[in-house]
Amino acid sequence: MRLITHLRHVDLAVPDYDKQLDFYSGVWGLTEVASDDGVSFLAAEGSPEQYIVRLRKDADKRLDLIAFGAQTPADVDALAERLGTAGVQLISTPGKLDTPGGGYGFRFFDLDGRTVEISADVALRTHRKLEPKESVPVRLSHVVLNAPDITATRTWYETHLGFALSDTLSSPYMGEVMHFMRCNPQHHSLAIAKGPHTSLHHISFELRGIDEYMYGTGRLLRSGTRMIWGPGRHLAGDNTFSYFLDPHGNTVEYTTELENLDEDTWHPGVHDFSQPEVTDQWGTANPMNELIAKESFNDPDRGVFIAPPI
Predict the structure, then answer these.
(1) Do 152 and 289 belong together in one domain?
(2) CATH number at residue 28
(3) Where is the VOC domain positioned along the sequence (predicted)?
(4) In the prediction, which pLDDT does 286 show?
(5) pLDDT tens for residues 95-121?
(6) Measuring CA to CA, which residue among 276, 200, 278 is closest to residue 234?
(7) DSSP labels for 71-129?
(8) Where in the sequence is the domain holding 152, given as residue range(s)?
(9) Which has more confidence, 305 or 291?
(10) Model pTM?
């Protein structure tokens, strides 16, 4: 039974905290809603989540954690018991959360040593409907993780957290390179990419529509932010993409129109990544190549099997 409902937020630790905060709260279009000494919580204007990105100042660049939602505290307890019984290493047991919006949750390490949080009863944030041409993120769309063994990581998320496989990217030369995973009808809230080490591949942010997505892409280009791939439209998920690098080399994406599936009838497909129309249906993006792929390998994560301090 699937107990996870959606992706809540992605938390990053960064050495150059002020530069990152300026980027995410400035040109990227998030809103700082709370802060403490060296910690900032950033919300999307159109999302009821209290925040979708947390930045924390640290000597090391790392992915602090990925947070998913559950429907009820009872579901949180059930997941904690399920994981504990299966031998998954828990970082904390279910209890009250002291982050914005409160709630009830716990943390644990996934197969590759990333910290994952599951929570319920987090207060909803007052949000609004974005206006036409308003090119800031509506919500957090999905997160993609690099893993040395993508089949093992995919199986772990299916077995322990109830994620379902939506589609796979493969190629004649590299084999399977990405698994798209869902926890609701959205084509993917999580994807596992083949990488040389455990790290963050990219974080994706949903915009209001195609027009807003293009306005946002243009704003980032005019700001001098480096775009590594796009604009285009993927085949798997049918979503648009523009990939940029944040000031610390994390890949972040503007997207829109990610496919919603009929889960009762959907059957996962395998798409040949070496075919240009698979990576970009429109043919407008620069061709995918090894240099673009290496950018999204990111630096090896310094936080593997080390819980964040907050």
Answers:
(1) yes
(2) 3.10.180.10
(3) 6-121, 139-257
(4) 83
(5) 999 999 999 999 999 999 999 999 999
(6) 278
(7) SSHHHHHHHHHHHHHTT--BSS-SEE--STT--EEEEEE-TTS-EEEEEE-PPPPP--P
(8) 139-295
(9) 305
(10) 0.97
